[in-house]
Give the backbone structure.
Amino acid sequence: MTLQLRVYVPPHPLIKHWLAVARDAATPSVLFRSAMTELGRWLTYEAAREWLPTQEATVQTPLDVSPATLIDPTVPMAVVPILRAGLGLLEGAQTVLPLASIYHLGLVRDEKTLQPSTYLNKLPEKFQPQTRVLVTDPMLATGGSMMNAMAELTQRGIDPALTRIVSVVAAPPALQKLNDAYPGLIVYTATIDATVNNQGFIIPGLGDAGDRIFGT
Ligand SMILES: O=P(O)(O)OC[C@H]1O[C@H](OP(=O)(O)OP(=O)(O)O)[C@H](O)[C@@H]1O
Ligand SMILES: O=c1cc[nH]c(=O)[nH]1
Ligand SMILES: [Mg+2]
């Protein structure tokens, strides 16, 4: 069996609604931030399915003993927001994963070459091998930034099969690169858009996510 990148676009009305709000050029920053928070929340909820480690137990109810399934607290969980725009998804992701450790990674693309460079890296030197990692970045355009993030994670011991990417708008060039390099990886996104233009913007997309979140 050859592994392939799996890309899930959950058919959920809340995800569709907040994507439409985020796409609208007339949406002001304050509402755009709410849209990102909600998308972070619901896409993380979807991504947590079959990813959060659980353990079986029994609990004493007021009336009897019942079998129970609990989140396994011994498996480390990490969220890696790709600054700046990935911060927009973080608050919603944290409501679903309140105990996850947050490791910030600051990347910015050169406007001309579209090559990303790192200006902040709070990743630990080594992750424990079983660590579940959720990477947040609303835009997967040329894929340069996410490929950079995945290289930083895997060289620190992260297993791509235990990693989930949460994005909002994913474009074919990014998905192709991730598929070629990390075939076991799973992406959750609100939409897959048609193309990336010569300036590196996703079409139709939602514009510059970082600028719209922070009003710059
Ligand atoms: O797939 P790529 O072609 O690498 O593009 C995607 C990246 O571009 C944007 O970041 P940007 O460099 O604009 O930084 P920002 O988040 O601070 O605005 C976006 O938030 C992604 O990180
Ligand atoms: O369309 C795009 C592409 C990359 N980054 C953005 O913020 N928007
Ligand atoms: Mg930007």
